[in-house]
Amino acid sequence: MLRRSVPGSLVLLTAGLLASSPAQAKDLRQRLGVGANAHLGSVPALSIRYGLPTGNPAVNIQVEAAAGFWIQDSMPSQVTAGGRVLYGVVAEDNMNLFLGAGAAADTVGTQVNARVQPVMGADFFFFGLENLGFTAEWGLDIDVGANSGFATTGTIGAGVHYWF
After folding, report:
1. Judging by beta carbons within 10 Å of its beta carbon (0-12, 13-18, 19+), is residue 3 exposed, middle or buried?
2. Rounded to whole angstroms, how far apart are CA atoms 153 and 100?
């Protein structure tokens, strides 16, 4: 029974590979991305990204605004709001690698911290979902305020944006 399904599976796999579109680097200039991430603060946030227009197609610069909150009776409320600038350094097939810098206000209860965040990350675009980007990032969190500190950060698969 297994032998009958193997040739059929190979035919379907070959047809799918031949019919798929060629992989290309994602050009996000002058496009708006709406989604969510957990990069800047202590809570997941809704975010909006915009790819700035540039004269050179190899230059990809994005600005991002993010805001999120967590309000629950049994825990102190948490609010995060901030923004970032992201600069594309490598464009590969269906992936953009970027460097960035961000700043945010992160509040837990009555304690407020200012966060500065240098970051490196990648946006992935899967075949068939050309407008849906998944993000993985790593970098540093530098907090100044009620709970000053310095920490590494890594948020694998913690962001998703739909690009219009």
Report:
1. exposed
2. 14
